[in-house]
């Protein structure tokens, strides 16, 4: 017999139980069956029968996926999800439950309520009167525990007591003695107890604590930096990025967790994310220091260093390291580097074209659609897919890529983590944690898991890298003293002034200005804003920029309290070009780690956030971990009113204008409601609503002040950016 299958899905509505709501999908499978031997006699070709002689059978099964529920129901569903054909539920729950419960609460429910085989026959779990039922339950619990240990063993790292791990070990000794899992838990406990406390970012720390005794931080020596080959620098940056990215704990990226990092009691929250941010900032600041740190450099020498960093960025692209690639591009687009117009004139045209193409990767057009598509395209590919519109660049790229292929070692992909942090914060802002009846909204967790799954996939791909640390470079990298914002701006002005006095004739200068301007016109890559002196900030970089977020470009979503400002591209006042749409204000805040931007970069009608733009792809489609046939609803977005809701950004008066929180509002919200939510987001006392007024920023010299009981949604100006200020009343 021969068989063929055709599967269709049909929405089966909802099922409501006490404490839970389920989505039901009907899976209908059509099976066509034919007798091979009689096929030819009946007019069929090969093994195919004519339609009238085909036997069709239909099989319908029900897929039940929990949509919302109490914590108790969600934990119970861990034991029944497989039987309901919700095969991804356990992975989704384990990846996201930290947003609404602690490991201890989940473990107690799983072991004490559902896993206590001695008391389960008293009605806690039905149908456990037989030995067979006990064996089934034991197997289900063992399966959940095994998945927990496989996917999230870090949940049990609770020094010094390790209460959860000891509780689990005690359960296994009583219910599954001498099992492999008992041995595994014992080994994990010993591993945790024996491991010394080590900084996650130990090898990339730029503090003096990471130096050999007697060494001090220093400004880069140009000759020493030039001695490192471009591909060696890129490989070492990739090595450091890979080590950090593989250590990232995915649930640390969840918006509900990451957004709490600024509270005093959470100063050690999400250390794996902070370490990645620290490395990103270290690369950005190293680029700036090597270019500006030595006053005695001639114009041509400084231009050569810029060329070298562009070539290193290109090598990072070949290695599929999008983190260091973006860090380097961000630094070159920073205030203090971008304003070196005379120096940029001496950068060769071919190298500038490479720089232009690399910058286009991070264009904010369609909410960074180019970088998103490229990342997903190369996530699991063996090598980089290099396309260049310039023949010389294409030839060079293919030559370097061929060298990589000749080594016979596949490459992983290191992403720019800020993209995922942005998506998860947007999801957290747009979707409610609880639904009617106080049930936990698990549909929200399914959406978040789609992003988490991408992070895990990329972490797995990083195992393909085979990079050896070069201690000479790593020590040099650690020794670099990073310039503050004020220092880099001052040195930039000095370098440009010195260049102006030694430059060629005015006629030659005008010609070169025209050449570089012509090169960048017509692209959305390199068009600068007006130059401004830097604002004071605790730690250096360039003005208007938070370094803590995985740099997401000036027009991207910010959910941060930014302190360490870094990298904002700036040109001189006479520059006729307008502000770029490419990550002009990007960077990580070395201390905070939040996605940030400069308000001034957003232009009317620009796509500013993940989620803005209907086809931008900012919030991933429901491909993984979702129920077939269930289409996601459109989410509220920033800078656009849609279906009676939108997202606004609210900053506190007196703080840096890029320090803001994203808030979801609807057409039912009035000033007191929005003010209270803004105060809560900024960790202020929500009862002080009467002490504040909410205003919308229309332009540099215009504001829209709302009356006390105004409807924010209908009263706001929807033709400018949805940026608001919460100001204490006089």
Automatic annotation (TrEMBL):
Biased composition range(s): Polar residues: 547-557
Position of the signal peptide: none
Location of the Ras-associating domain: 644-730
GO MF term list: guanyl-nucleotide exchange factor activity
Domain N-terminal Ras-GEF, chain residue ranges per copy: 62-193
Pfam families: RA (PF00788), RasGEF (PF00617), RasGEF_N (PF00618)
Region described as Disordered: spans on this chain: 524-636
Entry GO terms, CC: plasma membrane
Domain Ras-GEF: 229-498
InterPro entries (alphabetical): RA_dom, Ras-like_GEF, Ras-like_Gua-exchang_fac_N, Ras_G-nucl-exch_fac_CS, Ras_GEF_dom_sf, RASGEF_cat_dom, RASGEF_cat_dom_sf, Ubiquitin-like_domsf
Any one biological process term the GO annotation gives: Ras protein signal transduction
Compositional bias of kind Low complexity: 537-546, 593-626
Protein keywords: Guanine-nucleotide releasing factor
Organism superkingdom: Eukaryota
The name this protein goes by in its record: RGL1 protein
Organism, scientific name: Sterrhoptilus dennistouni
Lineage: Eukaryota, Metazoa, Chordata, Craniata, Vertebrata
């Amino acid at each position: 017999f021969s068989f063929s299958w055709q599967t269709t899905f049909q929405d089966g509505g909802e099922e409501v139980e006490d404490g839970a709501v389920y989505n039901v999908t009907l899976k209908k499978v059509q099976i066509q069956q034919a007798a091979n031997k009689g096929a030819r006699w009946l007019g069929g070709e090969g093994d195919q029968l004519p339609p009238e002689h085909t036997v069709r059978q239909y099989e319908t099964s029900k897929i039940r996926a929990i949509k919302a529920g109490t914590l108790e129901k969600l934990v119970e569903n861990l034991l029944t999800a497989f039987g309901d054909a919700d095969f991804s539920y356990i992975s989704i729950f384990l990846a996201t439950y930290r947003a609404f419960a602690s490991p201890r609460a989940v473990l107690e429910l799983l072991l004490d309520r559902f896993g206590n085989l001695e008391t389960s026959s008293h009605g806690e779990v039905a149908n456990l009167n037989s030995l067979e039922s006990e064996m089934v339950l034991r197997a289900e619990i063992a399966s959940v525990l095994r998945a927990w240990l496989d996917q999230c063993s870090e949940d049990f790292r609770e020094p010094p007591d390790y209460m959860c791990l000891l509780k689990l070990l005690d359960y296994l000794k009583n219910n599954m003695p001498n099992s492999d899992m008992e041995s595994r838990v014992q080994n994990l406990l010993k591993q945790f107890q024996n491991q010394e406390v080590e900084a996650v970012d130990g090898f990339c720390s730029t503090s003096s604590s990471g130096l050999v005794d007697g060494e001090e931080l220093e400004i880069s020596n140009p000759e020493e930096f030039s001695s490192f080959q471009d591909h060696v620098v890129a490989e070492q940056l990739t090595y450091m990025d890979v080590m950090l990215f593989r250590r990232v704990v995915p649930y640390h990226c969840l918006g509900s967790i990451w957004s709490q990092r600024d509270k005093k009691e959470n100063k050690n929250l999400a250390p794996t994310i902070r370490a990645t941010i620290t490395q990103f900032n270290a690369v950005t600041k190293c680029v700036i220091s090597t270019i500006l740190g030595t006053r005695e450099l001639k114009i041509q020498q400084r231009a050569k260093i810029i060329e070298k960093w562009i070539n290193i960025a290109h090598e990072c692209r070949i290695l599929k390291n999008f983190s260091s690639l973006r860090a380097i591009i961000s630094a070159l687009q920073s205030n203090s580097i971008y304003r070196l117009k005379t120096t940029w004139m001496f950068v060769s045209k071919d190298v500038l074209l490479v720089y232009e193409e690399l910058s286009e990767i991070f264009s904010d057009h369609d909410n960074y659609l180019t970088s998103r598509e490229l990342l997903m395209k190369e996530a699991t590919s063996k090598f980089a897919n290099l396309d260049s519109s310039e023949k010389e660049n294409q030839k060079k790229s293919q030559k370097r890529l061929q060298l990589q292929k000749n080594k016979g070692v596949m490459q992983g992909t290191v992403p720019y983590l800020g993209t995922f942090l942005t998506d998860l914060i947007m999801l957290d802002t747009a979707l409610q944690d609880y639904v009617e009846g106080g049930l936990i909204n698990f549909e929200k967790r399914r959406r978040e898991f789609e992003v988490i799954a991408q992070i895990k996939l990329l972490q797995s791909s990083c195992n393909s890298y085979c990079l050896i640390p070069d201690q000479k470079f790593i020590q040099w990298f650690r020794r670099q003293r990073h310039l503050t914002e004020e220092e880099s701006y001052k040195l930039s002005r000095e370098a440009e002034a010195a260049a102006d006095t030694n430059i060629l004739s005015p006629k030659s200068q005008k010609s070169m200005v025209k050449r570089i301007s012509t090169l960048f016109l017509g692209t959305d890559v390199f068009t600068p804003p007006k130059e401004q002196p830097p604002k004071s900030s605790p730690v250096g970089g360039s003005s208007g920029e938070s370094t803590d977020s995985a740099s997401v470009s000036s027009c991207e979503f910010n959910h941060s309290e930014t302190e360490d400002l870094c990298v904002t591209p700036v040109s001189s006042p006479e520059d006729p070009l307008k502000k770029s749409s490419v990550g002009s204000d990007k960077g990580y805040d070395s201390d905070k780690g939040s996605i940030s931007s400069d308000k001034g970069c957003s232009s009317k009608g620009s796509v500013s956030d993940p989620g803005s733009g209907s086809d931008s792809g900012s919030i991933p489609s429901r491909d993984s971990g979702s129920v077939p046939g269930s289409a996601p609803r459109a989410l509220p977005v920033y800078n656009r009113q849609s279906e009676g809701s939108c997202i606004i950004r609210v900053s506190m008066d007196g703080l840096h204008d890029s320090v803001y929180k994203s808030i979801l509002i609807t057409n039912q919200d009035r000033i007191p409601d929005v003010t209270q939510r803004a105060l809560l987001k900024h960790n202020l006392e929500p009862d002080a609503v009467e002490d504040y007024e909410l205003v919308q920023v229309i332009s540099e010299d215009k504001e829209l002040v709302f009356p006390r009981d105004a409807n924010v949604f209908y009263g706001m100006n929807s033709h400018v950016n949805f940026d608001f200020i919460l100001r204490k009343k006089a």
